Amino acid sequence: MTSRQGPLVAVIMGSKSDWETMRQADEILGQFEIPHECRVLSAHRTPAETAQYVDQAESRGIEVIIAAAGGAAHLAGVCAAHTLLPVLGVPMESASLKGLDSLLSTVQMPGGIPVGTLAIGPAGARNAALLAVAILANSRPALRDKLRQFRKAQRDKVLRETLP
Amino acid sequence: MTSRQGPLVAVIMGSKSDWETMRQADEILGQFEIPHECRVLSAHRTPAETAQYVDQAESRGIEVIIAAAGGAAHLAGVCAAHTLLPVLGVPMESASLKGLDSLLSTVQMPGGIPVGTLAIGPAGARNAALLAVAILANSRPALRDKLRQFRKAQRDKVLRETLP
Amino acid sequence: MTSRQGPLVAVIMGSKSDWETMRQADEILGQFEIPHECRVLSAHRTPAETAQYVDQAESRGIEVIIAAAGGAAHLAGVCAAHTLLPVLGVPMESASLKGLDSLLSTVQMPGGIPVGTLAIGPAGARNAALLAVAILANSRPALRDKLRQFRKAQRDKVLRETLP
Amino acid sequence: MTSRQGPLVAVIMGSKSDWETMRQADEILGQFEIPHECRVLSAHRTPAETAQYVDQAESRGIEVIIAAAGGAAHLAGVCAAHTLLPVLGVPMESASLKGLDSLLSTVQMPGGIPVGTLAIGPAGARNAALLAVAILANSRPALRDKLRQFRKAQRDKVLRETLP
Amino acid sequence: MTSRQGPLVAVIMGSKSDWETMRQADEILGQFEIPHECRVLSAHRTPAETAQYVDQAESRGIEVIIAAAGGAAHLAGVCAAHTLLPVLGVPMESASLKGLDSLLSTVQMPGGIPVGTLAIGPAGARNAALLAVAILANSRPALRDKLRQFRKAQRDKVLRETLP
Amino acid sequence: MTSRQGPLVAVIMGSKSDWETMRQADEILGQFEIPHECRVLSAHRTPAETAQYVDQAESRGIEVIIAAAGGAAHLAGVCAAHTLLPVLGVPMESASLKGLDSLLSTVQMPGGIPVGTLAIGPAGARNAALLAVAILANSRPALRDKLRQFRKAQRDKVLRETLP
Amino acid sequence: MTSRQGPLVAVIMGSKSDWETMRQADEILGQFEIPHECRVLSAHRTPAETAQYVDQAESRGIEVIIAAAGGAAHLAGVCAAHTLLPVLGVPMESASLKGLDSLLSTVQMPGGIPVGTLAIGPAGARNAALLAVAILANSRPALRDKLRQFRKAQRDKVLRETLP
Amino acid sequence: MTSRQGPLVAVIMGSKSDWETMRQADEILGQFEIPHECRVLSAHRTPAETAQYVDQAESRGIEVIIAAAGGAAHLAGVCAAHTLLPVLGVPMESASLKGLDSLLSTVQMPGGIPVGTLAIGPAGARNAALLAVAILANSRPALRDKLRQFRKAQRDKVLRETLP
Q1: pTM summary value
Q2: Are strands F64-69 and C9-13 parallel, antiparallel or unpaired?
């Protein structure tokens, strides 16, 4: 999604194969009309570029960073080490350990450098975007209203479900 | 900690025994002079009071809710279900499964209702407070400066460490 | 299944996608001719409606609540917090952690608010219904006789199995 | 606890060392004045006596069986195989795997023979007794009133908690 | 396999669906020309028949019992409780927890009642038969020679493997 | 324990620190008056001596090998690779992973080379000895009688247990 | 790959079925033009040949051994016991436990006999080869230059990734 | 340990509290008279200094980097991202998850950036140093002789062990 003003949320992921999952975050942010950008940046294969990107995020006007990675998932932690912005981590579902490795290496951060971690896989991607919206909404009343409508629609959808 | 203006952060926990861990969050918030309040509220033993407290949080001016619980740790999820505010979850270290149960029941939220989850135990308590500070700092430049100094002090402390 | 008298068992599930598993409970209850109703109600997306539904269950004559959910599976615990009726929990097999998250967040309830938890997935759905039958049978001798016949048929089926 | 009328609840455990945990169930049942009996019976070391005890439970007027065991915890499953009564299982916290083995071998019962499983350790012991009370209360209104008072007292205790 | 003399090894399994795995044991025993019989017997659905079968095994001349089950896999433990013969357990690969539940509920037997446990799934089925052969071979030199040849053939097969 | 005739059971362990656990096996074998020997031999630190010891076991008249190790516990598997005798494995309770590593690396043997694995820690040590007794008893009726008395005494002990 | 000079790296695997994964190591070593050889050798089925192969590796000029195995994966540890050369272990993704067993039985080596362990499955195979290259490059500047180019190409590939 | 020539091995750890474990690596390297240095450097709290230190390691003559960290243990991965040198990772035993988090976040590196991972805790610290020695010994025959003597002494120590 290209944004007219600078992006408010950065969505970065360690590998292009994570896009299949992270497009869920992109869709939610688009639905809320949040200016954002999505990038592939690896904590391990492009450490300098990742550090530089994250170091500059604050001055570019970004307010939340969403970082997704799998396996020994260091991306969110590396982001958090390089910025004062809130960082949200999404553990990818990994091939062998089904995301338990991604989850533990994203959430078990040492005291001092927080990463707010969401669920493994698509639900986590979706929720990272929604948590970013909630954070932005703290100082944007119109956005909070949209969030209220989103929640109401979601509730109504459940209430309309019928079983065979 | 009593606060002169209304609290910006609510720290709630499922049991008084969680205080030993959650005082770490209280201390960090105090150190940053963030008006906040700490309460014992149980998703299971006081569901109505918990729902009511969380329902009113937004209108009381609270901007972030930190919820800590152990075992089948539903508190953060229940909070998230009742508010549009960002909710951060801290999994307590449980007696038998060492917090793995607390972690999974806090972090694995379904798409639609996010909880930003921190590490199990004291590091998570500390980091929930720091993430709340980062969220508040998005619209409070002076707070971001304090956070920058905190990070710098933390960095300098590591760099001064000497080994025998 | 529509019931002529009011339902004795409520089967609720967090998402319509759980029906594929929970129809096993529906079938068992139907087989025993237990009046019951099946509903989609989410602890997180419809918290008020869930609380209201559970609050009224006792006065509607319901005697057992079966609650099924996956991931951070709070539904059974939330039900148990709102009723004095016996609550049985069925952990859904989740996408990434294969139901370990669902199991731990259903079974590891704190002292005071019990959830009787069954196995992950279809076997658990089936067994939740059978345990509900056993509970109802305590004060309904005819139902216990049916249960005795069910068990006998099940035993005979095993004894008739032949291997190639 | 000796009971004037025949026991309504049987609490059995695989080893005398489980008593330290299971006295929590005994205390709750005593508090609710439920006639009950506590016995050591092992699925593995006294299989015939266990089968005989459980086979006779229904005719002795017992309405709920609580079975506690650790490690390869077969006691609850073996009870369930021998009775039509509702069986509740309490996984003991085991020495090496901290009760994960006890939990899985109690809860993962195959379709057809249900065990309603509670949390690992003392919280589970306590909750097994409370779930037994809820089951008995279905046909005993006075007991349900006591349960309502118990829950209220428990709620009030949480609400009275103060933090330093 | 029907055996001319009475069977030396009993292979029992909790469900007919385990046969797909346990035929590996049947094949190995057939290959070594060990008289044996394979039966479906459930610890939970046919407890009396299982106990009776195992109680009589010793007097029928059986020397080793192989028991296979999944989930809360109590079959091997229940066998061991009813016989002085060596009992070998094979944990089935279960649907949700991939056999971790079967493994722990088979291997973690309390002191006093041993079950010699093999690997989860087909490798375990095969190895249970080979361990039974090794046990029988202690007093049958001709069988030990066959086992020696089997091992040699197995070794030679590995040594002949070529990679592309 | 020195034995007048050659040993029938070899108890080997990877480290002297395992003796605290394995003395349970030694005591059981002593109680049954089984000639046996206990040795420290490491799969990793003394591979040649271990291989040689195991290679010679059969010709020395040994009938069962019990091997205990912790962590990446290869000892039982290495023994099994070098002998046709039945090999029983005892996983030690390890410092960090509490024996889960020891268990998986002992029990998950590939098809072709079986290790009959017992429980983690002291119960496993005790049961390895009892399973060895059961194996030896197949061709020693007097030993089976002793085992019958042992089981009876064990059963009677449970039946005599009284609760406060 | 046949090599003109003697091999510098030995890639051994416990079963031919591991080749599907380990060809990734073969490809990387080929890409760096490292003389190497790939062999099937089993710790359990061909212990003598494995020991002999590893014992001779040093005198044949091999500098790094890569060993891959699954389940109770003893191959890397057995190699390490027989050589002073650096041994790298690759845990195979196993059928039931998804490689957790392979990982723990490769990495949890006791003090004194190290195995440098890589990730489960293909990523680990690839990385074992790359770590072998890094080790060889310590005394081969031209190889380090190739490694630098490899890393640069890898980085550039990430930077060129575009999202839809 | 100060070294007269420049260090060949760098031992870095994320926190001073890791020293209690990592002194085992220091002692082994000292025993082999390998010039080395030990430093506290955090991937999260001092990311720039860590990157700079690792970037310069190769030009300073360092040949192996040993990195130790706990929880979401990113230090070894971050080192590997910044150097072509072989990086060995030591997972610290963490408070709540006992090092499983540290292990998975160290070992499960994505293809392209290898970390050779050792066991959790002191055994891993010791073995990281021994693996570094083995790597250095590839081009230093005298060091390989020392390693041979170390192994021999270790073997002799096991062979001298006596049991009570």
Answers
A1: 0.97
A2: unpaired
